[in-house]
Design goal:
207 residues, Beta-galactosidase, Chain A, domain 5, nine-stranded antiparallel beta sheet, six-stranded antiparallel beta sheet, 17 strands
Amino acid sequence: MHGVPWSLLAWELTEARQDRLAARLEWSRRDLLAVFPFRHRLELVATLGPDCLTLETTLVANRDGPVPVSFGFHPYFGLPELPRADWRLQVPAMRRLVLDRSGIPTGEEEHFGGLNSRLGELDLDDGFARLDERPSFSIAGAGRRIIVELLAGYAYAQIFAPKDKDYVALEPMTAPTNALTSGRGLQFVNPGGAFRAAFRIRIDTAQ
């Protein structure tokens, strides 16, 4: 959560098993409301499978008003056995968000036909609106494929692949960058209602 010191985020562990962790965060303290003035509860569940990790987030709105939904995750990946230029990035067809000079979406979108190629000197820091119901993104190389699957709630994604760094970020997002200011693509949870979002990170054998 950008702009909020981790020391203020008092997550309460509600379940702990070998393959599953669950935690809850009550967004009701004055110091938290000074940053984001909407009372709500976040519930986060991480489930570990033989070849995957699933993260499910539920936002439950307080009964005193609606809550805007604008959160995401920043999973970074690398393949240390292989030079970055030889990693294969696969991204589905989507709508690319047109950005201004500051990297903020203008509200315009353009067609993006997808990508399935070596990274080479490719330099990406782009936001997208999804087209498929459950899109997936991946990097592959050295006999391994790392896949991010958007299962529910994530209508947007950010692909960050700087050409001078040995990592790629495949980021699920519930709203585009700056949505809390612009209102574009922003959803609201009704008082007392809930919003669920889930994504999965899976490791497979590269084809």
